[in-house]
Amino acid sequence: MDFELTAVQQEIVHGVRQLCKRFPDAYWREHDAAHEFPHAFYHAVAEAGYLGVAIPGQYGGSGLGIAEAALLMREVAYAGAMNAASSIHLSIFGLTPVVLHGAEEMKRKYLPEVVSGKLHAAFAVTEPDAGNDITHIKTFARRDGDYYVINGRKIFTTKAQVARKMLLLARTIPLENTSRKTDGLSLFFADLDRAAVEVRELEKLGRHAVDTNILFIDNLRVPATDLVGEEGRGFRYLLDGLNPERILVAAEAVGIGRAAVDRAVRYAKERVVFGRPIGQNQAIAHPLAEAYAKLEVADLITIKAAWLFDQRKPCGAEAAVAKLLAAEAAFQACDRAVQTLGGYGYMREYDVERYFRECRMLKIAPLSQEMALNMISEHVLRLPRSY
Amino acid sequence: MKILVPIKRVPDPATTIRVLADGSGIATDNVKWVINPFDEIAVEEALRVKEKQPASEVVVVAVGEPAWQEQLRTALAMGADRAVLVRISPPVDTGAVARILARVAADEKPDLIILGKQAIDDDSNQIGQMLAELLGWPQATFASKVELADGRCTVVREVDGGLETLSFPLPGVITTDLRLNEPRYASLPGIMKARKKELKEIPVETLGLNLAPLLKVRRLASPSKRQAGRKVASAAELVSLLHSEAKVL
Fold first, then answer.
1. Is the pTM of this model over 0.80?
2. Is-contact B67 B34, C-beta < 8 A?
3. Does residue B186 form part of some domain?
4. Which ipTM was obtained for this model?
5. Tell me: the pLDDT tens digits for B84-117?
6. Beta-carbon separation of B186 and A47 below 8 A
7. For position B169, which CATH number holds?
8. Which domain covers residue B22, as residue numbers?
9. What residues of chain A lie within 8 A of the CB of B191, using their CB?
10. For A318, what's the count of Cα atoms within 13 Å in the CB-facing half-sphere?
């Protein structure tokens, strides 16, 4: 057994930290306040080749694994919280279905553009009436010669304001005409054509630098060449990206949580009340020690899940556990950081309130804590399915 | 143009340093190691020369234990072409390092040697000067600007009260000051390529040098803790205390 990161992994951690140093808290505070996409950061990451960390070498990437991608995302989230992580998150893993199932021509055309940062892609899967219940989506793609004509609505679509393409899930056979509900769903790597898609930004609690949207799709004509893999197999293709996404989100949670603990610890050492640093009070120290411990555990299971995935071993349970523990640990750490800083913790200038707002999302997306527990109950403990 | 860049492995400047109770050294558990920041500036400067003169070769060299490979790999990931590690076990003093580097320079025959003006651990500020002396080469220390043209090197250095410009014929030695440049970070493809670049290890015994240390570190101690300040009521009281207590007036 070996818990040591490989030399390349250590270099990645070091390299990403060096890169992120050029984007200090003030950068993220300003972009969050202005609701402005962090283009300079995004391009710096692209230029340093990190967007292609897990994309195969023949398409311009570095062909490394989810473990390396997780380390990248952990360090990025440590530096710029979810504004930083979400600005690149989809480029890192989102096109897994295209990498694994897309036609050669599609891969050659688009993957190098994703690696270079030229192409932003959005993820259009969730719908207002179908969240975790993906098979019940209503968006429909009707075949029309060499095209599909798509109609429907998508919600929580990240980066649709800047994206030129989207990975879009639509039914090609109505649910009632399929023998299994997971059949008849197809995945497209479609143009986000604003003439046929109305993109409306949604206001949210935090992570204001990266937009979240609702999409109204009205007769979007998509060439059949934009179909990923075979028609009707879209649901299965999406599953390939599920575990990597949970692992990366867990890594992001660990990063943001560690940032919060570090801020709180620094403040607790410096802030003197009643003649001594507040960190000397166990009511301040112990919750921070506990937050630290929980983040360490979450980090370990996240790396383990990533390692399993990269070894092509089953990792569904570990990925769910990692996401569950990391999101909870991050929230606890950010909450304690705000509490440690007291009134200052609630102020924009001290940054922990931003971490607090942003980390709340991780208990909801990409799957809720409750669905992670369902997954563990049902698939690991073999308890009867509850829904 | 061939440029030799000696680098040193030092604790990350952000690390909190703890001196061992017996004063023999620092506690190295949980210390993160990095390239000495001034040497990192030297690597960057060499890479900028290479960008302007693509036929150039940048060779990084370190004198230390096997773990120093990590910092050489980082320099290779930044873009250096190959690396040399002269393997030696501590203690090793500045004179020995300079003599080893002079020997490496004699073998490598670089046109230019660039290194940090000092390492942030012992702050000796000696290697560059010693190296130039041992090689009999001109030196320009504390460089804040470097220009190469027609076999000569022009260096601007920050001195008390202004800037001094020196010019010397190659080969020569330059030591870097903080404001010379902002070092690049390694790209991911750079990190991947670095694994395949040559890293030659030379056991120091094979060099046949006399490296008996002339310097001995007797004791390390932490700086004394800052005392809390005191408020005084008037300027007159301040002057009086500076005279009677602090004895600086």
1. yes
2. no
3. yes
4. 0.88
5. 999 999 889 999 999 999 999 999 999 999 999 9
6. no
7. 3.40.50.620
8. 2-222
9. 8, 11-12, 15
10. 20
